[in-house]
Each structure stands twice: as C-alpha cells, then as structure tokens.
Amino acid sequence: MKRILLLLFISLSSLSLVGQTILVEKNIYNSTRPIILHSVNKDLKEVYFSSPLSESLKFYKIDEDKVVDDLTIKAKKFKGFVRFNEVYSMVQYENRLDVINSLNRRERFTIIHPSDGYNISGITYDNQEDAFLALSGSDILKMDISPYGIESVDTINAKLKVKGNPSRISSYDGKPFLAVEQGLDLSYVYMLDSTKSTKLRYPINYTARNIAIEFLNEDTLFVSRTLRPGESELVMIYASQITRHPDSLYLDKINKRAQEQIDSIKAEAMVNALEFTDTVTRDVGQGRFTTLLQRTNDAIVAMTTLNQALQANPRSFISKKDSIYFVLGPKHELPNSSKIDSARFFTQAGLLGTSVDLGEDSLIVPDDVVIRLKCLDQRTGEPVSYKVDYYEYETNSVVKSARLQQGEICYFSYIPDFKLGLTITSEGYLPHSIKFDDQKNVVRRKQIEKLVLLQPINESGNNRFALNNIYFDFAKWNLTPVAKRELDLVFENLKDANSVTIEGHTDWIGTNAFNMSLSKKRANAAKNYLVKKGMKKSQIKTVGKGETQPRESNKTDKGRAANRRCEFIIN
After folding, report:
1. Rounded to two decimals, what is the model's pTM?
2. Count of domains for the chain
C-alpha cells in the first residue's frame, strides 16, 4: 500500500529467536471519542468505521491511504455496516438488518425484522465459511444471507465461555474473534475455537479498552481501541501470518517506509531492534479558543510545564512568538470548550489555566516536538511498568520524571533547539537510553511514535546494554554532568550485580595505541564514579576497545560522536 508499509528482507530461518514476528503498526485515525470498527472489504480494500463525533460513516481507502466520509449513511442511526460490493451493503440497526443499494437509495430490503426476535449485537462475514456470523446474547449464529432474506440460521457456539459481556464479533477463515466488555470501561479481544477461548496479548491487547478487530488478509488486521479517556485510535497492524498467532511473543521492528501494496509485501531490510520510531500527524485541535497554561521566556520552564500538561491532555503544545513561549491546551471552536479543558484535565494535573481567544493567531502550529512512548517486554510483548527520566543537556535540568504502570503511555515534548536525554528503567529489566539531538529542520504538526522493547535481565549473565547519554568530547575521558546523571539513574540496576564489565570505545581519529588507551580511561572514569557511589572496586572490570567496534559510521561528526561511548555487561 502506497506510503504505508515498511519493506522487509531476511530469511526467517536466519532469525535468532524462533517464532519471531516482523511487525508494523500504523495509525489510521484518531478521535477524542471511541471509534467503532465495523468491517473490512478485502476486494475493494476499504475499512469501514464510525465515531460519535461524526454523523456519517467513514471508510479508509487502503490503496490511497486516506479517510473518506460517506455522507449517504448516517452513523448515529446504525450499529454495524458490511459492504458486499460496489452496489450492495448491509446496515445493522438497533432491531433490524437492511440491505441497501448505493446506486438506488429507494431499493432497500429488510432481512431481519424487529418481530423476528434475533437480538443481534454484532455481525461479520467469514470468507472461508462464505456465511455471516452474528453475535446474539452469549451465542454465535451462522447465517446464510442473500439480498432477499435469511436462507438458514445455525447456532455454532452456544453459551460462550468468556468472562464479561461479548459486544462485537469478527472472523477470519472460520475462526471467530470477540471483543468482550469486562466492566470499569475495560474491553479485551478473545480468539475462539470449538473448545476454548483465548485472551490475546500484544499486539492486540496492550491497553485498557479494545473495541473491535477486523482482518484484511492473513498478514494484516485493523484494531480500534481507546488508550484512555479522550484518546482513541484506529490502527493497522501488519505481521507475517498474524492470523495464526495474533498474540505475538517476539517482535522485530523495521526501519523504512514502503511504497508497496499491503498484500504484496516484499523483503528488503530488517533491523533486530529494541526501539521502533514512526511519525503520525499531530492533532492540536482547530479554532480560536484555547487554554493558556504558561507564558515565559525560559524554554526549560516551558518544556517542563508542557510535559506536565501532556499527561493531562496529549493535544497540548508550545507556540513561540518573538522570545516568548506560550504553553497552550488544544484549540477549540467554542470558548466554553477550552474552559471545560481547564476544569476537566489541567486542574486535576495541578495546572492553572486561563481560557483565551487567539484571534488572528488561531492558525498557529506547535513549535515543539511531541513523543508518545510505550514500553513492552522484549520477550513476551506484554506491557511493563517503568520509570522515565527526561532531562535537558546544557543545564542538566529535569524536564520530566514519572512512573508508569503496565500499559500506560507516556508523552514527552521538547523544543528542537535543545538537546535532551531520556533514561528508562524498570525492575528486572536492562536500562534503555535515548538521546534527542537538537534539530534544525523539523516538520511541525508531526507526532513521534516510539515503542521500546525492554530486555529482561538474563540470570545466566552476559546482559549487554549501552547508555546513549554517557558521551565524551573528542580525545576526552571526563564524565559530563549529564553522563553522571544517567549513571545515577541506572545505579540501582548495577549495584547488586555479581560483576559489571564496562567497555570504553573511541572514534577512528588517532593512532590505534592512543585510542586503546583513551577508551580504557573512559571505562575507568565510569568505574570510578560508580565506586564513589558505593559499588565495590572488585565488582567492576574495565576494558578498552579503542576504535575496533564502531556502532555507527566514522565518516560523519554524528557517527564519530556516537562511537565515543561506554557499554555495560552485567553478570
């Protein structure tokens, strides 16, 4: 599919982890209200959905990568939609089922009447069975439906053994999938067979509420889900033969955009990575009215305030005018909406906001970059609890520090003129470290999606990781304040280890002998700092690797800077 997928190239037999899955996730549509996914037409390559914010049916044209409104069908009046072909569609209402003709709106057949007593809460078409599967209470019905009525009805799965209230059904190759509501605004997707139901794990269930799932082919599916109140999304997930194992245990993330059809993926380049980055369009609202949270000429204060605001409302942003930074809530058409934002979101987060009229500045766009982070267990794909520390390089100031529970998403923001570091720690896992360099050319109105796979600590030892915010100037070995901060943050992960090996590295400038000595000094600088904090000298071994193991190309300034580093091995 144009502008959607990433190209992959590797033989599965060469993977080091058996059963590993190549996985891509793409955001299709966002809404502040729940998104109801209705169906997918594989021949037309269209995905049909609706949202309470829109009065019309929406459909995603896969080949064109765009969302279109179908103004002929009012979304508020129906519960489900299935398109047979370019002419005929089936619409599910509260107590009846109609077939309609898109070319002749007067041609309409009611195939289930209110008096029939079926009480259908969801319906889907299964390509293998060439039949419709309907959810009726706690039963699954198999229906043979023509444009003129129901030919036959059979109960294929009676009294479903799932905990909760089944709300929606989908199916692929004869295998039903159910969205089940379980109270407290929770909903999960289950896979059914003749003897049991299986609650799916990542990538389907990783958050609080999963509303529906639909399949395009054996490699591609769509999920509508609510991440938290006020933030819902429709996403496309690609993984090799995902219909056979939709609760993938191992994940490989890939690194390039593709220009290919969704159902004809080709293999080109794959990275066995612990970190995956994508970008989506950022939504900060539209209109003249917003909530002013901070007005300051101090960029660090502005970033700190925005990072607090983002966790309350992820559509908040920074706008800079002259030398002043304005921290703002989302834009709205009506003044009362910004007042509601202030009362509902920001006050609860400890922020005081004032509703303001932007006037001629209503078209402003963000001057910051926002990052949306989620963390999973690298082996199981399950969500983990984690701690984040986010700090600015020049002043060594903490911009954000937070503890996130399993499945929680963390938002960060930074002004591109600044360089920031992020350290992620979690009990039982190796630390993960990210450096955000200052950027000259930033596409505004974009949101960075970042997925981090945390490595569980292997009890047998040889746990290797790099700390990307421990860096060294050219030909230097002294630790910067930021490097010391990162060592402070990961100290708990290191202090109880049986042994820690610190490897020092250099770029390729200088003689082999000089670089070998320099790399040893860098490793010793990190060791000495950890010893001062309380570790025993006997716990820590240092090794100088010189220029022998570059992580990036030595032909650029950025690559050489990345190669001047320390790596750690915990045993």
Report:
1. 0.61
2. 3
